[in-house]
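Quick entry, no commentary yet.
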Amino acid sequence: MHGSHAYGRLCFEGRFYLLKRGEDIKASRLDWITILIVATLALAGWLNIYAVVYESQLDQFILDINLNSGKQILWFGISIVAVSLIMILDFRFFDSFAFGFYGIITLLLIAVLLTGTVVSGSKSWFEIGFIRFQPAEFAKFATALAIAKYLSKSQVKLDNLKSIGIVALIVGIPAALIILQGDTGSALVFGTFVIVLYREGLSPVIVIIGLVAVALFVLTLLFSPLILISALLAIGAAVLLFWLISKKVTPKKLLTLGVMIVIPIAVILSVNWVVTEVMQPHQQNRVKAFVNPEADPLGYGYNVTQSKIAIGSGGLLGKGFLEGTQTKFDFVPEQSTDFIFCTIGEEHGWIGSFILISLFVTLLLRIVFLAERQKSKFSRIYGYGVASILFFHFMVNIGMTIGLFPVIGIPLPFFSYGGSSLLAFTILIFILLKMDAHRMQVLVH
């Protein structure tokens, strides 16, 4: 018994020694490629935030705390403190307290509904002095951790309705609370977790059904419902005729065909009700602007129209840093946040836009690479959660500035002005980097 006790003590001490040694060399294990890309994006974003507010006739210093660029520097400092804390913590802390993070953020989402400040029609902010704090931004990484924690359990498989239902609940609770706050754009980000689920074994049939439903919704906005329904019925009739001629028709096939026609028709017929009865007036205007911004270029189509003008005016090389006329005269609203890509297009042209997009694509590919090389299932799933969130923000933010997506008001990661988003994206990325630095030490559930 004494020998067994001594062996156990030696194992404990050996494990402790290895962990301490691992902590001592963690800087060399960090993925500096990802850190360099993130730092480049943050620096470029900061300079463009200054470009938005810059006025040549005024004596403005980029670090002036009264300017957005000065305020962003303060959030850089707070983000660095957060990174330092993440590096100090044991890498297993995030696995152990994943549901704890999720619970705390959920409570904050409820609290902001009761006591929050309304900003731009959304009651999603806590305001403490001159600092505003948006829990919805932090709900993204908390939900990513909770999904990773649940799916990493050995008994959880995504081939049964129970597991799918629990994951849907984990995603749905914060999304529903954010919708109640009036911030539908942030809530839509949670739909991108389907990428994580697909990577972990969700049937592609479910993914395809979801994509088809979204495509039908968008097509119904662009075309007459009568045309779409007629096309569906024509396709169904053609398939049925083929089966009859080839004598391959069966009751099961007829039932499947009926479901594949009836459900899409139901989706098509529900679009008008969703737009007119469910959406708020400002959301309806965003849909109208997406469908046809030229119909009211001075009204609901103003943002997108001016955004396209600003980007197009930059040409190949742009007008030069601090030389954007559309920027200077505030033609594009929310240009420091939702529409900051316009500044890149106008001042740095196609070349600058291409470089920025290339940086984001490289970052996304790097994160997927990091996720795939994890030995821990929890870390891998979380990595895909990080990639999914960043992909949605990158794709939709840039897409809405050029009219490819409706304007839903989400920031460009590390680039747009905003303390909550900068801090949340920093935490999101560096939790993954912390896990990656210890990827050889497998978490066991």
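second:
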Amino acid sequence: MDSHENIKNAKELEFAVFCIENVAAKLNVNAETVYKAFTEKSDILNGYIIPGYEVLHSQGRDYIVDDIIEVIKERGVEV
């Protein structure tokens, strides 16, 4: 998923918040730290999570969180 998309509606916004909060909980850091990692340190939010919304949001929480953590590792983003 290489496209770059901004959040278009409330469902995508809710999903973005869900991803940030759940990744933060799994990594035992605060949500603001994860948000900054997804937006300031990388383009994971608008370059991966939002373009992948249709596929990702239909998965279970653990799958989504683990998938995003894989992306963080692959891209070498520090959280």
